[in-house]
Write a structure and sequence with these properties.
5-stranded antiparallel β-sheet, 6 helices, single chain, alpha+beta, 3-stranded antiparallel β-sheet, 297 residues, elongated
Length: 297
């Protein structure tokens, strides 16, 4: 059962995911039409051969592709500003189908006036309903397949927090050092594995993240990889890594000072070369509740 008010996973509204969905849907629609148009009455005016209807069909598909691309781009931008719900996502896609069906009805009526199409006296409302039925297949099916594919990819490619307690070593390892933070990029490739105690904070840089950590000589280093900060937030929900700003996730074990200033709270970490990190209003309550759990000096 779908919880309609539940927040939509970010992997469904990412720039890459939506672009791939549009391309896959376009290819699916063309293939479906090529295979079905010659044998199905519902595609009566879709022409594949060298006829007047071919240009009419091509224009229709081009306009639909542009409309869907604009719609998905708007969805992507909206998803960055605020988290969409399942209900909003489904309604959005249904509206796309309605608009495309209305466009099909308009093209059919205009094509009949131009003598390109013969609708055999079919009423506009009948055309619209028939178009809706076909759009649910041509658009709904690839949307569903794409969603399932990216859900699987998100599970496989997500950043994981791994425990190396079973690793055999000749060194004495304290429990805290057993925890490793293993970072994978969007393609699922392992990019960085560091101790939790070495990581200070993670910074968002558009579609990339910058991981700030110290090496074996306590020198501050940075590592950039293609990944979403939201993925980290979700993957490390039960760890010491906590979101404090739309651009930052901090390791709460590295917090040295929490200071209240005119524009809000800021954090100072244990490494003096790291500039103060702001806490946005959205995450202020969560950070303060974590700080209050720290033992008093």
């Amino acid at each position: 059962m779908i919880n309609w008010g539940k927040k939509l996973p970010t992997y469904l509204v990412g720039d890459y995911q939506l672009t791939a969905t549009v391309i896959f849907t376009a290819l699916f629609a063309v293939l479906f039409t090529v295979l079905c148009a010659p044998f199905h009455q519902d595609f009566a005016w879709f022409a594949i051969g060298a006829t007047k209807g071919l240009g009419f069909t091509a224009i229709f598909f081009l306009i639909v592709l542009i409309l869907v691309s604009i719609s998905k781009r708007t969805m992507c931008v909206t998803g960055r500003r605020r988290t969409l719900t399942y209900a909003e996502y489904i309604i959005w896609n249904i509206l796309e189908i309605i608009v495309i069906s209305a466009l099909y009805t308009f093209f059919t009526m205009e094509g009949e006036k131009l003598g390109i199409i013969d609708s055999f006296g079919e009423a506009p409302i009948s055309m619209f309903i028939r178009a809706m039925e076909q759009c649910i297949i041509i658009i709904g099916v690839p949307y569903l397949i794409s969603g399932m594919y990216f859900a699987l990819m998100d599970k496989n490619n997500t950043i994981r927090l791994m425990n190396y307690s079973t690793v055999v070593s000749d060194e004495i390892v304290v429990p805290k050092d057993e925890k490793k933070i293993t970072l994978f990029d969007n393609s699922g490739a392992l990019k960085l594995s560091i101790r939790s105690s070495s990581l200070f904070y993670i910074e968002s840089d558009d579609n990339y993240i910058i991981v700030w950590y110290t090496d074996g000589q306590d020198m501050l280093k940075k590592y950039m990889l293609r990944c979403r900060l939201k993925t980290i937030e979700e993957s490390f929900a039960d760890s010491s890594l906590v979101r404090c700003h739309r651009k930052y996730i901090v390791n709460t074990e590295k917090i040295k000072v929490l200071r209240k200033e005119k524009d809000g709270y800021i954090l100072e970490l244990e490494n003096e070369s790291i500039p103060p990190i702001s806490i946005s209003k959205t995450y202020e309550e969560k950070i303060l509740s974590i700080i209050h759990q720290f033992p008093a000096d």
